[in-house]
Every structure is written in structure tokens, then in C-alpha cells.
Amino acid sequence: MGGTEGNKVLVYPPELKYVKSHEYVRVEQGNKAVIGITAFAADQLGDVTYVELPQVGEMFKAEDKFGVIESVKSVSDLFMPVSGEIVAVNERLASEPELVNLDCYGEGWMVKVMLSSQDELSHSLSADAYSKFVVD
User: How many whole angstroms separate alpha carbon 50 and alpha carbon 107?
Assistant: First the structure.
């Protein structure tokens, strides 16, 4: 799954869920989910220089702003794709924001959330649908 941006092939893992604000959700261990930005978003931002994330224990509803990401090109808000409580924050991004560009689906994850409701995932996009969305 992927789109092509210039000569770069962008990958969208099929096991993830995607939202139109360019975040992904990877459900783990029942009601826990990992949130980050997609390869498309990381590519569009360029070199990430700073990531501001919430504190563990904070609660968010789907579509709430949960942070800010800065790059050499721009500053963008991060939006929560699901409702829930922050249970972990990727502390490495404070000193290594480039992990978002290097491995957005792995080491560059942003927060882990205890989901309020898995039903919200039914509103997300599949990898194929997200790939088509970013090409249009």
C-alpha cells in the first residue's frame, strides 16, 4: 500500500487505521492504541525539528488537538484520531524529533492511548482508502 510523492514511494501498512488529518492508529493489546503521523504527513512536513506532546493521564476526544509538530517547512497541529486517555508518550521525540521522518510507524510513534471506544475506528480509513485520499 502506498502512494508516490515525487520519486519517493510512501508506505501505508494495511494493519493500521488512518484519518484524513494524517494520523494513524495501531490497536495493540485490547483497548490500547499507538498514534503517530503517516508517511505522507512526515514527507510533506520535511525534516521534523520539534514535537510537542501531551502528558500521560490527559484525556482527549476524537479530533481534539493533542500536540504540535514543527519542521523546517511549517508548524502543524496534531489531532487525536480516537477518544481516550494518554497512557504513554514517546519521550525520545524531545531529543530525537527526526525519528518521525526516519520511522514514523515504528520508533517515531507519538502517544499511546487507552481507547474510550473501539467503535470510533469504524470511521477511519483503510490503507487503500487513505492512499487514494492523499493522491486526490
Answer: 15
